[in-house]
Write a structure and sequence with these properties.
By secondary structure, the protein is an alpha/beta fold. The chain is built from 15 helices and 13 strands. It has a domain at 26-249: 3-Layer(aba) Sandwich (Aspartate Aminotransferase, domain 2), CATH 3.40.640.
Length: 414
């Protein structure tokens, strides 16, 4: 392999396709066949969803687990159970996927965005404290990329103001915070089972709680009932069967992710301008992604140039996140063309203006700092060593990245 960067015509570090994730085994195939043979696909008449709920609750040591059709619905049904509604505010980190906040809007509440703290990149408790108002009803604590956030600090603030804490664990199945599984510390823990997640069922979501009343509300809310407006938010028997077959392997799959991280970081060594995200003390990340932090000043080129060069070396990487206040639907503060809930008369304090939101840490994370490295269990030592080799190769030839930057600016390089 030559030293010239692949993006400029050199030989790439890797030319083979990257191992796909997920790759389901015979247990999942048998589970799907079992449902197909049953001719009973609806969760109210089958037993797969209930069995998965019981297993998921037992895995976490919680009293209740409520399955729904997606991770987004898991967040919304959790907010419904928490009583979030018209005139309320929900504190959400600016650095997260849009569903963490859009679920609040679906409940006619207004998301209030807070900055990140730099060790876990979860929400900053100090900024949470600054943003609490009499209108605040709940806090969404997101464990981004599988790194547990500072849940104890969030719970302390919530206790002072009688707020509900919803842990968004969509990236963090099986991750631990001070010996406790994430999702068990807040009042509710919401999980996505979408295709890319650590526990993958294709689609689906589930919420855990120890609160009997909230569990009953969620079960009522996810289907049609006499006593309240209901929805068809049910999890299908097929997806419950897939998730149930994968759940016994979750811990082993997470250990494979951690082993991949160890292999990659050992192979990478100390590289100026590239620093692993430390995470919080006494936590065990789930590593939905390994986060490497990029220093543009040290490397002397934009992160965009580095990412383009890394892709060209055959290493998959896709930078996706922007602070939520910059998403068009929040910048416009008008989801449905009528202003609500952002201009709702039940919301005291006047219309929302997200252009005034300042989240410098989250901005840096999204715009310049994060490199989201794939470490799924279907990868192994070869892929991790190649990833480290590609990073070291690019840094060793960082002067060439100025050419890449110029090509990006001129539109010749995507």
């Amino acid at each position: 392999m030559g030293s010239k960067l692949a993006i400029l015509g050199g030989e790439p570090v890797r030319s083979e396709p990257w191992p796909a994730w997920p790759q389901h085994g015979p247990e999942v195939q048998e589970a799907i066949l079992r449902v197909a043979r049953s001719n009973c696909y609806h969760p109210q008449f089958g037993n797969e969803t209930e069995a998965f709920e019981q297993a998921f609750a037992a895995y976490h040591g919680t009293k209740h687990a409520v399955g729904v059709g997606s991770g987004t619905l898991a967040l919304q049904v959790a907010m419904a159970a928490a009583g979030v509604g018209c005139g309320d505010e929900v504190i959400v980190p600016a650095y997260t996927y849009v569903a963490s906040a859009s679920a609040a809007v679906e409940q006619n509440a207004v998301p209030v965005f807070v900055d990140s703290e730099p060790r876990s990149q979860g929400l900053d408790p100090a900024d949470v404290r600054r943003k609490v108002t009499p209108r605040t009803k709940a806090i969404v604590a997101v464990h981004a990329n599988g790194y547990p956030c500072d849940v104890d600090a969030v719970m302390a603030i919530a206790g002072e103001h009688d707020l509900v804490v919803i842990e968004d664990c969509s990236h963090a199945h099986g991750a631990e915070y001070k010996g406790r599984k994430v999702g068990t510390i807040g009042h509710l823990g919401a999980f996505s089972l979408q295709n890319k997640k650590n526990l993958s069922a294709g689609v689906g979501g589930i919420v855990i709680t120890n609160n009997d009343e909230m569990a009953q509300r969620m079960r009522s809310w996810r289907t049609f009932a006499w006593e309240r407006v209901g929805h068809n938010w049910l999890m299908s028997e097929f997806h419950a069967a897939v998730a149930g077959a994968e759940l016994p392997h979750l811990d082993a799959m997470n250990e494979a992710r951690r082993a991949n991280v160890t292999t990659l970081l050992n192979a990478l060594g100390n590289v100026d301008g590239i620093t692993p995200l430390p995470g919080l003390p006494e936590t065990k990340p789930g590593y939905y992604n390994l986060i490497l932090q990029y220093d543009e000043a040290t490397i002397g080129a934009s992160r965009k140039a580095f990412v383009a060069a890394l892709k060209a070396e055959g290493i998959p990487i896709k930078m996706f996140y922007v602070p939520l206040q910059r998403w068009p639907i929040f910048a416009e503060a008008d989801f449905y063309g009528r202003g609500c809930p952002f201009t709702c008369p039940k919301r005291e304090g006047g219309p929302v203006d997200y252009s005034k939101v300042r989240t410098p840490v989250a901005d840096a994370i999204c715009d310049r700092v994060n490199l989201e490295i794939k470490v799924q269990p279907t990868s192994g030592e070869t892929e991790m060593r190649q990833t480290a080799e590609a990073i070291r190769k690019i840094v060793a030839n960082k002067a060439e990245l100025t050419i890449v930057d110029q090509g990006i600016q001129e539109g010749r390089i995507k």
